[in-house]
Amino acid sequence: MMQRVAVTGAGGFLGAALVRRLLADGAEVLALVRPGGSRERLAAVESSPGLRIAALDVDALADAGGRARAAEALRAFAPGALVHAAWTGVRGAARQDVAQHRNVGATVALLEGAADAGAGRFVGLGSQAEYGPRDAAISEDDVPRPTSVYGAAKVAAGHLVLAIAPRLGVSAAWARVFSLYGPGEAPGALVPDLAAALLAGRDLPLGSGEQRWDYLHVDDAADALARLAMTREATGFFNVGSGRVVRVRDVAERLVALAAPGARLSFGARPDGDLVHLEAQVERLRRHTGWQPRVELDAGLAAVVAAARRATP
User: Fold this and answer.
1) Residues 48-63: pLDDT tens digits?
2) What CATH number is given to the structural domain containing 271?
3) Is residue 232 helix, strand or coil?
4) CATH number of the domain that 86 lies in?
């Protein structure tokens, strides 16, 4: 394991899980969080001797001053690797905002800053949204067909990173992350919203539930990113998913069994989105890093419900 790793978006769902994983592996970590952003997900490790926390305004990387401040923070820490997990506009209407293009420039600026600080490894977080709607398992060789500005920006950022990094002497990987879940996920996604609704005795309108998604526990995703960060030979695009597909309806029914047995679900009460089948082929990631998911879906969902129950007044 590289002994010094910088992580942007360290206050986020996946970023914080990655910080915890790296610290558990004995790495020194520079956790870069948004100014004024929540550090709640880092509370359990905030006093770790190997952790430094600093502010990084990703949006400010569009100007020279912001880039200089980021570069200074990275040089002071001198990371061996940087994992870029920060992104502006990941939910709702923001995914179609033309301002998504600013994330592309910020990603390139961080790559340049990492190279200037002596980091030999850069891992950027992509998304399943880069692929667009599919009806079969997706490999890294499939041509991206994003339907959102968010997905298109991720595609552009990933290709630029992989084109520029070798010219800077940096080994780079772009991790296309599929459907994450786990304790600590923000509201606005099916799993945390349905768990909270069931525990509160509220109805949550659902679509048909016939979509088939690739659900991956956040700790497994963090393990994949940690392995990518330490495997310089693993370059290019990598899918990060469970490699297994499950109906959304089945996930919802499992949550009912865990949180409110006997509760009825309102399937068909809202329209379905475009995404029908999201299934990652993950052989490339396994071959290069030895990674494999470890958290079974039932155990992961039980942990989500337990955490939601503890948080219920």
Assistant:
1) 999 999 999 999 998 8
2) 3.90.25
3) coil
4) 3.40.50.720
